[in-house]
């Protein structure tokens, strides 16, 4: 899992300061959240997906693989709105299902925005290492080292939990322990059989790591130095320009090519 | 609770590195004291080994001396005086839970950052300590998880050296290492400890006992029964060392002596030529569609004790897992005369139907906790019998009591399996695995991290079962087992199984040409 998501390609976004990048992406998210224009939403989805291919940290094939589920995402996030949303211009009706013109476009709009979100998120994740991000947050945003290092330590422990889950599954197979009962009862049994051993192991491990960290004179206070400096370089300038141009480009495109031509998809009866 | 604490440089105690006077300590939920009025002082520059049975409180004492208790781990204690060294470093037992960062350089930097060392000075310092522990990496930005366990322990030692400690505390640092890793780690420790005080808690002392200045021997109740030079301790307390399960030098020889007396009686019982319990031809085990273990031909006969050896990651565990049908396999696999259906390439439905042959093979996992399924020790042993509708509940009860007795778990029937000691957990996991009378027992490094007493107890059970005609297949790094106890050795290298010969002794019961 972790290896799968480790970036292998080096792009300009990867060299940008993670704190700056985080701020930029939060701004981009905000823009996407506030988008009401369906053309703009679609253009954002296209532009960010393109950016993911050009500036993302994954090679082409892996990016393609990651983009396939976008289609599923589009359908799943738009379908409920398309089928059940409010609207006046009725196109098709069957029982509870009621597709209206308004709900259809609103659904499309939702779908495009989900893709835009997904592409933005992947773009950020694929170009940012968690360690660098926490170092930048500690230095630029004054995140308490206590939290930053706890997060970094726990990320290191995650693959071990997965391995233990597999071990536990094999052990249960060998012992012939079958989950009895279905529904809630089966779920409770699942939790008893898996959560207790995994949690007890994880808690013990976390405790040991914590003791080891404190034994290395980590007390969460006092002055510290940082191995990775949080520097601002010309790379950040370029990243900022690129990531500001991207939504602007999408906006301009939405003005010039009005495929849908709906400026506000919200329902106003 | 009152506590007086002085730093080492106070008054005229220059010579004392760490000390406690009149220490009383008790864990909140337990009835008895771990220590009652314990006094002990360790001089500067001394290399001291704390020895004692599991659970006598050695590690706790180490944490008190190093100031982890009560500052980091809160345990109520009372002492007239505790002298904690001003600068100190710890290496713990588990190589996997000492690091908080994913890369070697980041982990070492973590220590330097804590000390506020300037960034420019970091890399040279890292290189210096890595060289000091014999970790020669060309590139410092290496994932910690790509290192072997022994290298991880040396990395832990390197990060301790960055603290520039007066006193280095080692808490069973070699318990989870293989023989090579152990040797290299101690090599690094002696080099690092030059001019410093060293306080060690360890069971595996074959490699290092002769190099310490002083051994302090604890009784099970936490009192000191011996304090002196290694020679003096080994001369006067051999019986206690044996009792306490310590891996003192010569421990295997003592065990073999006891064995030899028994084996002469048993040898006549060894069965003659019989049909194999398990036979493999052109057998391949797969993990996520990659072949991980290949066996040209192999057989297991009743009364075999097979040691599976080989370097880490060679495929030893994969072999056991595929024999248990937990990994998919292809090829010919005959178990107790019955041909097992291939699972590689089989359909999901068929695979699901196959299931592990737990009625014929008992499996003991490396971590006993993962195989526990019941709430009490009693139910844990009875569990497999109940799921197979093996017998009436009285019979199950009776058999469970038998097993409780023979695995020395009497009196613990109603405890939760998690509340047992490590040795007890291991014994319980074995009892639960073999309770249905399976004719083959697979064990994945059952003696790993166990003290000598537990190890010999495990071996004793295995050999008893072997004498009764069961076959034992044990993955192990322990040379003593492969060389002297096993009747056959399987060597796994790069995913290929080869039949080896147990070096070092004549094998009257060895089957040749089977």
What does it look like?
The complex is a heterodimer of chains A (269) and B (514). Chain A is mainly alpha-helical and 269 residues long. Chain A contains eight helices and two strands. Chain A has helices at residues 18-34, 38-55, 60-84, 101-127, 130-140, 145-175, 183-215, 234-256, and strands at residues 90-94, 97-100. Chain A has a two-stranded antiparallel ribbon with strand order 1-2. The longest helix of chain A is centred in the C-terminal third of the chain and has 33 residues, at 183-215. Chain A is flat, with a radius of gyration of 24 Å. In chain A, 32% of the residues are buried. The model of chain A has no long low-confidence stretch (mean pLDDT 88). Chain B has 16 helices and 20 strands. Chain B has helices at residues 58-65, 68-71, 104-114, 119-132, 149-161, 179-192, 230-236, 238-243, 251-266, 316-323, 348-354, 377-387, 393-406, 422-434, 452-467, 479-485, and strands spanning 3-7, 16-25, 35-43, 47-51, 77-84, 88-91, 167-171, 197-201, 214-218, 224-228, 278-287, 290-300, 305-309, 328-335, 338-339, 361-364, 440-444, 471-475, 488-493, 496-500. The radius of gyration of chain B is 25 Å and the shape is globular. The N and C termini of chain B lie far apart (69 Å). Mean pLDDT of chain B is 85; it is low at 1-12 and 504-514. At the A-B interface, helix 6 and helix 7 of A face helix 3 and helix 12 of B.
Strand order of the largest sheet of chain A: 1-2
What is the N-to-C order of secondary-structure elements of chain A (H for helix, E for strand)? Answer: HHHEEHHHHH
Number of helices of chain A: 8
What is the averaged pLDDT score of chain A?
88
Show unreliable segments of chain A: none
Shape of chain B: globular
**Spatial strand sequence of the major β-sheet of chain B:** 6-7-8-4-9-10
Sum up the overall morphology of chain A in one term. flat
How would you classify the quaternary structure?
A: heterodimer
Radius of gyration of chain B: 25 Å
Largest sheet of chain A: 2 strands, antiparallel
């Amino acid at each position: 899992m972790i290896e799968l998501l480790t970036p292998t390609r080096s792009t300009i976004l990867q060299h940008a300061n993670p704190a700056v990048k985080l701020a930029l992406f939060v701004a981009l998210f905000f823009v996407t959240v506030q988008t009401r224009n369906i053309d703009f939403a679609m253009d954002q989805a296209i532009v960010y997906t393109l950016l993911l291919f050009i500036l993302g940290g994954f090679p082409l094939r892996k990016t393609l693989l990651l983009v396939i589920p976008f289609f599923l995402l589009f359908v799943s996030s738009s379908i409920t709105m398309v089928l059940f949303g409010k609207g006046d211009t009725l196109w098709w009706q069957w029982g509870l299902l009621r597709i209206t013109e308004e709900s259809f476009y609103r659904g499309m709009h939702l779908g495009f925005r989900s893709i835009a979100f997904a592409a933005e998120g992947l773009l950020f994740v694929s170009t940012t290492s968690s360690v660098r991000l926490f170092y930048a947050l500690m230095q630029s945003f004054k995140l308490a080292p206590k939290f930053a290092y706890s997060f970094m330590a726990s990320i290191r422990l995650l693959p071990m939990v997965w391995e233990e889950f597999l071990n536990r599954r094999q052990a249960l197979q060998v012992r012939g322990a079958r989950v009895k009962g279905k529904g809630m009862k089966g779920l409770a049994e699942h939790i008893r059989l898996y959560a207790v051993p995994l949690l007890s192991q994880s808690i013990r491990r976390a405790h040991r790591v914590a003791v080891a960290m404190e034994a290395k004179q980590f007390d969460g206070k006092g002055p510290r130095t940082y191995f990775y400096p949080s520097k601002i370089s010309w790379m950040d300038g370029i990243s900022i320009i690129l990531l500001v141009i991207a939504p602007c480009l999408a906006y301009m495109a939405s003005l010039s090519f009005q495929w849908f031509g709906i400026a506000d998809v919200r329902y106003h009866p | 609770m009152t506590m007086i604490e002085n730093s080492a440089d106070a008054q005229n105690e220059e010579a004392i590195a760490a000390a406690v006077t009149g220490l009383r300590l008790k864990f909140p939920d337990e009835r008895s004291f771990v220590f009652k009025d314990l006094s002990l002082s360790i001089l500067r520059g001394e290399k001291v080994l704390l020895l004692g049975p599991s659970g006598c409180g050695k590690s706790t004492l180490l944490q008190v001396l190093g100031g982890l208790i009560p500052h980091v781990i809160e345990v109520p204690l009372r002492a007239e005086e505790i002298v904690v060294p001003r600068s100190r470093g710890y290496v713990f037992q588990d190589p996997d839970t000492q690091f908080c960062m994913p890369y070697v350089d980041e982990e070492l930097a973590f220590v330097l950052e804590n000390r506020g060392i300037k960034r420019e000075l970091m890399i040279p310092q890292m290189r210096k300590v890595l060289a000091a522990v014999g970790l020669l990496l060309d590139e410092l930005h290496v994932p910690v998880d790509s290192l072997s366990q022994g290298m991880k322990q040396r990395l832990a030692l390197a990060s301790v050296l960055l603290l520039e400690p007066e006193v280095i505390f080692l808490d069973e640092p070699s318990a989870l290492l293989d023989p090579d890793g152990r040797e290299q780690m101690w090599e690094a420790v002696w080099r690092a400890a030059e001019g410093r005080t060293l306080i060690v808690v360890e069971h595996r002392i074959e490699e290092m006992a002769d190099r310490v200045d002083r051994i302090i021997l604890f009784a099970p109740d936490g009192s000191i029964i011996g304090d002196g030079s290694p020679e003096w301790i080994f001369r006067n307390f051999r019986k206690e060392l044996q009792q306490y399960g310590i891996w003192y030098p010569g421990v295997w020889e003592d065990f073999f002596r006891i064995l030899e007396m028994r084996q002469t009686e048993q040898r006549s019982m060894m069965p003659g030529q019989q049909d194999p319990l398990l036979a493999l031809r052109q057998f391949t085990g797969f993990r996520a569609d990659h072949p991980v273990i290949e066996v040209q031909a192999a057989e297991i006969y009743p009364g075999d004790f097979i040691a599976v050896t080989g370097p880490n990651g060679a495929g030893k565990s994969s072999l056991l897992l595929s024999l248990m049908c937990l990994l998919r396999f292809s090829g010919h696999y005959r178990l107790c005369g019955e041909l097992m259906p291939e699972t590689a390439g089989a359909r999901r439905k068929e695979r699901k139907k196959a299931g592990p042959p737990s009625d014929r093979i008992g499996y003991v996992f490396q971590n006993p906790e993962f195989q526990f399924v019941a709430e009490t020790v009693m139910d844990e042993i009875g569990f497999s019998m109940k799921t197979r509708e093996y017998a009436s509940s009285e019979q199950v009860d009776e058999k469970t009591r038998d097993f409780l007795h023979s695995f020395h778990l009497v009196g613990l029937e109603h405890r939760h399996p998690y509340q047992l000691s490590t040795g007890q957990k291991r014994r319980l996991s074995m009892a639960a695995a073999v309770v249905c009378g399976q004719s083959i027992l697979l064990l994945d490094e059952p003696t790993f991290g166990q003290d000598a007493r537990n190890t010999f107890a495990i071996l004793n059970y295995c050999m008893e079962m072997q004498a009764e005609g069961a076959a034992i297949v044990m993955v192990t790094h322990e040379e003593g087992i492969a060389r002297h106890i096993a009747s056959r050795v399987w060597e796994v290298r790069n995913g290929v199984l080869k039949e080896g010969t147990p070096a070092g002794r004549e094998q009257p019961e060895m089957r040749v040409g089977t």
